[in-house]
Amino acid sequence: MAERQDHREVLLHAEDVVMQFGGLRAVDGFKLTLHQGELVGLIGPNGAGKTTCFNCLTGVYKPTSGRVLIRGIDTKPLKPYQISALGMTRTFQNIRLFREMNVIDNVIVAGLQHARHTDFDSIFRTPRHYVEEARLRERAMELLAIFDLKEKYDLKAGSLPYGDQRRLEIVRALATEPRMILLDEPAAGMNNKETEDLMHLISKIKRDFNLTVLLIEHDMRLVMGICERILVLDHGILIAEGTPSQIQNDPKVITAYLGAEEQA
Amino acid sequence: MTLTDRSARIRFLKSLLSPTLTILGMIGVGIALDIITNAYVQFVILLMIANTVMATSLNLVSGFTGQFSLGHAGFMAVGAYVSAWLAMHPALAGAPDLLKYLLLPIASGLAAAAAGYIVGLPSLRLRGDYLAIVTLGFGEIIRVVILNSPAIGGARGLYGIPSAMPLEEIGLSAFSTQFAISSAWCVITVFTLWRLVHSARGRAFLSVREDEIAAEAMGINVTQTKVRAFVISSFFAGVGGALFAHSVKYLNPATFTFTKSVDFIIMIVLGGMGSFSGSIIAAAVITILPEMVLRELQSITGVDLRMVIYSLLLILFMILRPSGILGTLEIPDLLKRFKRKAVQNG
Question: For residue A163, which of A197, A130, A190 has the smallest C-alpha distance?
Fold first, then answer.
């Protein structure tokens, strides 16, 4: 445990995470400690390994070496659904909604892990089935209302406009009742106005749901605007960590990230 | 809006009503069919019911959970032989007749479900088409095992399978008794699968079909969900096999070939992957087609055109209506649409 000065609960602790695909080290020595209530940004040029980091943290990939602890529990033997049960959830860069399912069913499925009824209850339509289904539905509607998706609850998720799909992914993630949410480029493909709304929304859900947020984003305005701490990844290696102003003035970051952009 | 215990209990009691009424209605239908149809048509009707059970149960795995199974006939064979063997077993000779034939499908279902668990557990852990290969192999293994088991008839087949005695005291002939048993199990199958899929827990099956990675990230145990679907589906395939055994009264391993599994796949593809109503319609059509239409055609042309016509049907459907007759819609959805239109028009 590196940073002992912070007395908030450590939710996520990753050290020396390496992810190797054949001859490619997509992530090399990634480390991160997330405390309760933080909002941390993860940035880096295209192909820097940001999404691979997310996949290592959420158990989609098993890291080649290194450790990922969530609330002190080693996630190595755990499957992604068990990691989700520890209170970590995510959204996806290339939206992965259940497209052929209704908006509300997308949200209900994510809440299932907290439901107490079984297949038996549902087949025989026992009283417990009705109680639990009503509770799941009600909770899903509440979440959809926060994101202005309530009216669209019975549309196919795949038929929603792009921005709605991005927001529905966040709603679905929140339905798992997480402590920590990992957002993978939530503002991708959004215009300035939408990005700004999203910024407020992220701050709001962080406050209202008492969440800890780790965010991958390309939109600098969003990252610099809301993140308290930023990590910069380049070619799989962490090259800088600090507050937004520190990062903006870090020469390594400028060459790796912003410098590359100037050339283009 | 939270449901009180009392209203939940009332809803539970109400939910028992529709399956019970449907079963009672089907008994009436059986008596009517007994009067207006001949023995051959009655035989086809019993086959239709068994095929409906097979198609709807396969739809749970393939249509709703998105796993491709090529061995549904194998589970049907397990169910059929278990039920036939038990029915002929002297130890059960003294059991009350009707009760015996009502409960035999449960034994068949459990045997098939056990087979499904053994086959599904290793192959469903993997993503992709492994299940198709494993189930294909399983179907063949079962067939060859039966072929080489003289105790259950071997290659000669199993003759003289008994069925329920007619309940003449309440006006049921041999056909309407078997029809009542078969349709009761068919109603149980359809209601069970329907209620499972149309519930929050059933939505987990669909989420696995839609996106395994996302489902897993949202806390769904994907492997367990797939195995669950597969075991439930195998159970009802076993039930379908039992109904088949006591309707046909003769079992032969050659019945349960790979082609039989393909028949069920054709039913769910034509009916619509993800629509129970579609499976029921397609099961009826595909059962009647070879018996009543293709048989005539064969006597005229002298060749068996069944597979040619199935293939043509499939190709035509893939071009004209790739999602099948009903797609993912169910008949209640259609009725709702129809009503909405009627309201708009007048």
Answer: A190
Domain check: are A195 and A160 in the same one?
no
Instruction: For chain B, give the percent of residues with pLDDT over 90.
Output: 67
Residues A180-214 have pLDDT tens digits of 999 999 988 888 888 888 888 899 999 999 999 99
A118 and A48 within one domain: no
Q: Are residues A118 and A222 in the same domain?
A: no
Instruction: Tell me which of A128, A160, A177 is where a domain ends.
Output: A177
- Phi/psi zone of residue A185: left (φ > 0), alpha (ψ -120 to 50 degrees), beta? left
The 3-state DSSP composition of chain B as helix, strand, coil percent (nearest 5) reads 80, 0, 20
Residue-wise pLDDT for B293-336, tens only, equals: 878 888 888 888 877 888 888 889 889 888 888 888 888 888 88
Note the pLDDT of residue B2: 61
**In this complex, do B203 and A90 lie within 8 Å of one another by their Cβ atoms?**
no
Q: Which residues on chain B are in Cβ contact (under 8 Å) with A99? A: 210-211
Query: Which of B196, B203, B221 has the CB atom closest to A108's CB atom?
Result: B203
What value does the mean pLDDT take over residues A112-136? 93
Residues A81 and A208 in one domain: yes
Q: Which of A96, A110, A135 sits opposite B213 (nearest CB)?
A: A96
| Domain membership of residue A106 as a residue range | 97-177
> What's the pLDDT at B115?
97
Chain B residues whose beta carbon lies within 8 Å of the beta carbon of residue A90: 217
Angle at CA of residue B263, ends B86 and B19, nearest 5°: 60
**CB-based contacts of A151-156 (< 8 A; 24+ apart in sequence):** A152/A103, A153/A102, A153/A103, A153/A104, A154/A102, A154/A103, A154/A104, A155/A102, A155/A103, A156/A99, A156/A100, A156/A101, A156/A102, A156/A103
Same domain, A105 and A169: yes
pLDDT digits (tens, 9 = 90+) for B115-142: 999 999 998 887 778 889 999 999 999 9
Number of domains comprising chain A: 2
Interface touch B8/A136, C-beta < 8 Å:
no
d(CA A41, CA A243): 10
Are B328 and A100 an interchain contact pair (Cβ–Cβ within 8 Å)?
yes
Whether A214 maps to a domain, the answer reads: yes
Name the domain boundary from A126, A145, A177: A177
Whether A61 and A4 share a structural domain: yes
Is A92 a domain residue? no
pLDDT of the residue at A261: 47
List pLDDT tens digits, range B157-190.
999 999 888 888 888 889 999 999 999 999 999 9
B337: distance to nearest CA of chain A, Å?
Answer: 14
Q: Is B333 on the interface with A (CB under 8 A)?
A: no
Residues in chain B within 8 Å Cβ distance of A113: 219-220
Contact A89 B15 (CB under 8 A): no
ipTM: 0.90
Contact at CB, A109 and B202, closer than 8 angstroms: no
A160 shares a domain with A41: no
Residue B224: closest C-alpha in chain A: A81
Q: What is the mean pLDDT of chain A?
A: 90
Residues A62 and A168 in one domain: no
- Closest by Cβ to A125, choosing from B195, B215, B221: B195
